Amino acid sequence: MQDAVDRRIDGSRDELVTLTQALVRIPTINPPGDAYTPCAQLIGDRLKRFGFDVDYVRAHDTPGDSDRYPRTNVIARFEGKRPGKTIHFNSHIDVVEVGSGWTFDPFGGEACDGKIYGRGTCDMKGGLAASIIAAECYIAERPDFSGAIEISGTVDEESGGFGGVAHLASKGLFSKPRVDHVIIPEPLNKDRICLGHRGVWWAQIETFGVQAHGSMPFLGDCAIRHMGAVLNAFEADLYPQLAAKRTNMPVVPEGAKQSTLNINSIHGGENEPGSSGKPDDYDGLPSPNVPDSCSMIIDRRFLIEEDLATVKREVTGILDALKADREQFDYTIKDIMEVLPTMTERDAPVVKAVRDGIRDVLGQEPDYVISPGTYDQKHIARIGHLHDCIAYGPGILDLAHMADEYVGIDDMIQSAKVMARAIERLLHPAATC
Questions:
Q1: How far is 271 from 283, CA to CA, in rounded Å?
Q2: Out of 30, 49, 58, 248, which residue is the most buried by the measure of CB atoms under 10 Å away?
C-alpha cells in the first residue's frame, strides 16, 4: 500500500507545486492580517471538493480581529470507514512582512531550480501544501482507513496564535476525544522531528519624564535617557547572566541553547517625520520637546530549566535598582505574552510514527530538536491538554522570515511521503508493528 501512496505523491508533483504557488500568491501578511479569508477559502474549497467536511471559524474579539481583518480559520475533517484515532495536520496561513533584499517577487511563487520562492514558502505554506497532498494521496489509496484525518489552516501564529489555534483549542477542537495526534508542518527541516520549543515572556517597559522645551532640557526630564539607563544595565548585568545559562534541551541552532533577550522595539517622544512611510505622511520638521515617555518591548526566551517567576525578577530587579539609585527614575512593566517551554517525549506515538517515516523515506535516523521560538504547539498543550504533538515539515529553519525565502520541491515530496507513513502508523498501529 505504501508504495502505491508514494507513486501517487510522486505523480502529484505538479499539483503540489501549483497548490503551493496559489497559497503563496495570497499575501496573508500579519500584522495586520491581510487576506486571511480568501486563503482559508482556497484551502476549504479544495478539501471540500475532495470530500472533507469543512468549517470556517472566525475568532471574534481576539487581538486584531475586525470586519476589515477578520481572523478566519479553516478546519476540515475526513471520516474513515470505521471508528478510530484522529490525526490532525495544523498549519498557519499568516506570513511576516516582506522586508527588503528580495531578488524574487515575494508573492510571485516563482519556481526556479527545484525551489519555489516567496514569502511563506518555507514558513509554512509549503508544509501546508505537503500535508494536503499527503492526506489526499493516502485517502485515495487507502479508502477503507479507520479513524479520521483533519487539516487546518489557522491564523496569527506569527503574533502569538490567539486568533488561531488558541481560539480553536478553547472550543475543544484540539483535545481528546476529537483529536489524538497533531503534526504541525513548521520548517524544521525534513530530517528533523521538533519536540517542542523554548519558553517566551514578552513585556512592555515604559519609563517616564517631564516634558519641556528642547532648548532647556534641564527644565524637564528625558524619558529616553532613563530608558538608556535600562539598556546600559541590561548590557552590564543581564546579558552576561543570560549567556551563562545553558540547556540540556536539543535546541537549534547552537546559539539558542542559551537564554536570550531581544529588544523588539523602542519608541519615545514624537513620531519622526515620514516614519510611517505612507505617501501622505508629514515630512516637515519636529518640534523641540523633551520626551515624557519611552516604551520598549522585550522578547525574553527561556529554557526548560528556568522558572518564569525568576525570569521576570531578573528584569524587575534591574528596574527596581534603577528606581532606588537614579534620580527621578520611574517605570511600569506590563506582561504581553508568557508561554512555558514544552517538550514532547521521544516515545510518544506521533514521534515514533514520524521517526519510522523518516527512516523509510530518507534512510536515516532523524535528529530530535527543540525550536528556538514558540509555535502553536504551546496552545495545543496548554489549552487543549493534548501532548502527542510535534512539528515536522519540509522547510529549512534558517530561511524563515528571510529575503528570497524558498522551499525545495523535492523536500516537499519527501516530507509528504513521511506524513503519509505517519498517518498509516497512527491510524493502523497493529498493521505496522
A1: 11
A2: 30
